[in-house]
Amino acid sequence: MQELTHWINGKHVKGTSGRFADVYNPATGEVQAKVPLATKAELDAAVADAAKAQVAWGATNPQKRGRVMMAMVGLINRDMDKLAEALSREHGKTIPDAKGDVQRGLEVIEFCINAAQMLKGEFTDSAGPGIDMYSMRQPLGVAAGITPFNFPAMIPLWKMGPALSCGNAFILKPSERDPSVPLMLAELFKEAGLPDGVLQVVNGDKESVDAILDNETVQAVGFVGSTPIAQYIYGRGCTNGKRVQCFGGAKNHMIIMPDADLDQAADALVGAGFGAAGERCMAISVAVPVGDKTADALIEKLVPRIEKLKVGPYTAGNDVDYGPVVTGAAKANILRLVESGVAQGAKLVVDGRGFKLQGYENGYFVGPHLFDNVTRDMDIYKTEIFGPVLSTVRAQSYEEALSYAMDHEYGNGTAIFTRDGDTARDFANRINIGMVGINVPIPVPLAYHTFGGWKKSGFGDLNQHGPDAFRFYTRTKTITTRWPSGIKEGGEFNFKAMD
Ligand code: NAD
């Protein structure tokens, strides 16, 4: 069986802890590799080496750092197929989805080519007599990122690109469930010209995460994952004086107004609810049709579309709509929640519980589920299921529909489908959620905007990628200069003194 490594000082390095996690092929249920789980000592040593390497990297001019990003773009494109295959093998998503995962990360690396532009600071000439003032953005030193299983290329790239192009060294602790792609990306960064030690990939679990949070050299921590862990990391990291941003779970609502194009809404719901087996933080997991007529018509359109979905392994080609979920535990949790929905009185309109795939009986495939008549008190409504389960909550008015999305503890993404501009505008203005789609089911901002949720979906002030990332990974210093020889008595500037 393949034994994966850490990536330290530009090389693959075997783990020394003797502790490993199994890495599964979710389509077959087979263990295909084991990944080492680092000790605190291994993590601390990686950070110490990174701090040494950061000194020269931080002093490298930002245009040159941008050129490493430019080379990286070429290399990721060159290896797109290889990366997507490795990603699908460990995560389970289809090849087109895996390519999308790599592509959305790549777009942030493209944005980071412009590091020099993003970091150029501000200048005020003659703020006072002979006084100029300027601000510059300096790297923090060593920053760290802790990332989830569901986007093993995109989210590491969202963190590595901005952190590195700002002149920091970066420690990545990827998900232990699909660690191969982050290691491949580290190899590509070396090939792109990144100096050894500036990017360290340390595989691990809670022990290495705690070591990151307690390491005094680590200045900033970016986390993406579930909300309980986000809250834990935010609390411990902030207590230890670090800059911390944590992005957590989601329960994204899509409101369907009576005037919406229902075919378009149904297509959008099927893609956004079941794509990637529902394992997206921007997946739509709650449909909120307004009025029973809209709800009945929507359900009628959804059922045949959902029943047509093809579930299968990524190796089956482009026909497959979605693959298995990531682990047996994830599958069991999804099915447990489906049972709770039935027990608590929701109507299971499409029942995927009996789903079996011939030849893949040990894989973690979950059939699609559609619930109707879901209410606020049900576990399937309150909990992030992170699987192919779409809940329908019936609202009798726009205000009631809005209240569902507003009152939910999560605030990552949301959407409204309507033809009415006033309603759309009101929704965009009033909703307390970070990313909003108007007739767009998965409103993921592009690389040059920022990505982040509100409420229990995001902790910290700055978002991921876009301009916020350059703020998060730098410290602003403001310098006030005065040259007394340039000043005449009375405070006027003496140009002659310049000769
Ligand atoms: P997770 O919280 O289980 O794991 C995320 C990371 O935290 C992993 O690297 C893991 O090793 C580490 N971790 C797990 N348990 C820990 C503990 N007790 N102490 C310290 N570290 C720990 O999340 P996941 O299952 O990998 O990912 C799915 C979750 O991520 C979902 O909730 C999803 O909504 C969320 N997510 C959010 C966003 C966003 O931008 N808001 C994006 C993608 C995924």
Name some characteristics of this structure:
Aldehyde Dehydrogenase, Chain A, domain 1; 22% strand; globular; alpha/beta; Aldehyde Dehydrogenase, Chain A, domain 2; single chain; 499 residues; six-stranded mixed beta sheet; 16 helices; seven-stranded mixed beta sheet; 2 domains; binds nicotinamide-adenine-dinucleotide
Explain what the structure shows:
This protein is 39% helix and 22% strand. With 499 residues, the protein is of the alpha/beta class. It has 2 domains: 2-248 and 466-480, Aldehyde Dehydrogenase, Chain A, domain 1 (3-Layer(aba) Sandwich), CATH 3.40.605; 252-438, Aldehyde Dehydrogenase, Chain A, domain 2 (3-Layer(aba) Sandwich). The strands form 6 sheets. A 7-stranded mixed beta sheet has the order 15-16-17-14-13-19-20, with helices on both faces. It has a 6-stranded mixed beta sheet with strand order 10-9-8-11-12-22, with helices on both faces. Helix 2 crosses helix 7, helix 3 (80-91) crosses helix 4 and helix 10 (262-274) packs across helix 11 (292-307). The longest helix is centred in the N-terminal third of the chain and has 20 residues, at 40-59. It is globular and about 80 Å long. The model has no long low-confidence stretch (mean pLDDT 96). It binds nicotinamide-adenine-dinucleotide (NAD). Nicotinamide-adenine-dinucleotide is lined by residues 146-151, 173, 175-176, 205-206, 209, 224-226, 229, 247-250, 281, 384, 386, 412, 453, 457.
Tell me the quaternary state: single chain
How would you characterize the largest beta sheet?
7 strands, mixed
Straight-line N-to-C gap: 74 Å
Report Rg: 25 Å
CATH architecture of the largest domain: 3-Layer(aba) Sandwich
- Indicate the structural class: alpha/beta
Helix content: 25-40%
Number of strands: 23
For this structure, what is the CATH class of the largest domain? Alpha Beta
